C-alpha cells in the first residue's frame, strides 16, 4: 500500500478546498482503515467548501472533507472485533455517546452529544480513510459502491418518506435537490401515487421526472396549491414531504395537504419561519414530523433492503461520476450552481 495519498482538504478558513498529498493514516484503537471505493458529495460538504456561517462556527481546518462513503477494510486497529480485513462497509455519520437521556431511550438519532464523521474529524475525500468501527455498516458484496455510498443520505430520505403510511397515498414533495430526488425514488419504490414534485429548477424537474415523479410543478410559474388541488380533485395530498428548506414551500405544502394528512419536514430553513399555525396545522389536525439524521440502526436495514430489492431508481439521481479527485473544483461548482443530482468520486483511478 502507498504511504502517501491525495485528499480534498479544507486547508484554510476561506472559500474552497485544496487537493493535497498526505500520509496514509494508521488506525488507532477502535478504528479501521478503509480503501475508499466511492464517496459522494453532500450539501454539508458544499457548505464547508463555501465556508458559510455554520461551517465557520464548526469546522477546524486543516481537515479532510467528505462523509458519504463505500470502502473496503484494509487494516484493523487495536480492540476492534466487529470488523476484519476485506469487509465492505459504509459509515453512519452520527457518532453518538450511548450515555445521554436520548441514547438511553434508544433515540440515538437525537443524541445530544453527537459528533459528525467528516465534519468534526477527518473524512473520506481521500484514497484511504480512518473510520470508527462502531459506526461501520457492512454491505453485501454485490452492492455497487456508488449505491452503497448513497445509503447515508438515503437514510434521511427514508426517514422522511416512511415516517408514516405512504403506499397508495397522494404525495407532494417540495424541493428536488439531491435529497428530494432520493425522496422521490423512495416514495415511488414504496408505492406512493401520485407523486407531485414542486421544484423551480428546470434541470431538477427533468431529473425528478426521470426518477419517477408523476407530476412536476414550477412553483415560480404556477401556484403549487392550485396544481395539487386540481390533481387531487380538490382533496389535497395525504402526505407532504418538505425537502427544500424554503419557507414559501413549507407554507404552500401545508395549504396543499388534506386535513388529517401527514407532514414530514427534512429541509432546514435559513431563518425563523412565520406561519398561520392555527389554520395551516392545528385546525387541519395535521400529523407533523421533524426529521433528523437516521434511526440507528433500523433505517440502515431499510435502506440496504430497498437497494437490494432493485426497486430504487437511483441511476438518474447520480448525474456525475469522477475517477480520481483532479476535477473536484468543477464538481463542487456544478453542485453549487444546482446543475447536479448526486456527484460520486471513485478515488482510485485504476
Ligand atoms: N434534517 C436533516 O437531518 C437533514 C439532513 C440532510 C439535509 N437536510 C436539508 O435538506 C434539504 C435538502 O437537501 P439538498 O442537499 O437536496 O439541498 P438543495 O439545496 O440542493 O435542494 C433544495 C432544492 O429546493 C429547491 N427549492 C428552492 N425553493 C423552492 C421552493 N419555493 N419550492 C420548491 N423547491 C424549492 C431548490 O431549487 C433545490 O433544488 C436542505 O435544506 C438540507 O439542509 C436536512
Ligand atoms: C452529516 C449530514 O450532512 C448528514 N446528511 C446527516 O444526516 O446528518
Ligand atoms: Zn451529509
Ligand atoms: Zn447520546
Automatic annotation (TrEMBL):
GO terms for molecular function: amino acid binding; L-threonine 3-dehydrogenase activity; NAD+ binding; zinc ion binding. One of its GO terms (biological process) is L-threonine catabolic process to glycine. It catalyses: L-threonine + NAD(+) = (2S)-2-amino-3-oxobutanoate + NADH + H(+). InterPro entries: ADH-like_C (IPR013149), ADH-like_N (IPR013154), ADH_Zn_CS (IPR002328), ER (IPR020843), GroES-like_sf (IPR011032), L-Threonine_3-DHase (IPR004627), NAD(P)-bd_dom_sf (IPR036291), Zn_alcohol_dh (IPR050129). Binds 2 Zn(2+) ions per subunit. The active site is at 44 (charge relay system), 47 (charge relay system). The record marks 152 as: Important for catalytic activity for the proton relay mechanism but does not participate directly in the coordination of zinc atom. Zn(2+) 1 binds at residues 42, 67-68. SMART domains: PKS_ER. Its EC number is 1.1.1.103. Keywords: Cytoplasm, Metal-binding, NAD, Oxidoreductase, Zinc. The keyword Signal does not apply. Zn(2+) 2 binds at residues 97, 100, 103, 111. Pfam families: ADH_N, ADH_zinc_N. Its cofactor is Zn(2+). It is found in: Cytoplasm. Its main location: cytoplasm. Pathway: Amino-acid degradation; L-threonine degradation via oxydo-reductase pathway; glycine from L-threonine: step 1/2. One of its GO terms (cellular component) is cytoplasm. NAD(+) binds at residues 179, 199, 204, 266-268, 291-292. It comes from the Archaea. Belongs to the zinc-containing alcohol dehydrogenase family. NCBIfam families: PRK05396.1 (NF003808), tdh (TIGR00692). Catalyzes the NAD(+)-dependent oxidation of L-threonine to 2-amino-3-ketobutyrate. This is L-threonine 3-dehydrogenase. It comes from Thermococcus pacificus. The gene is tdh.
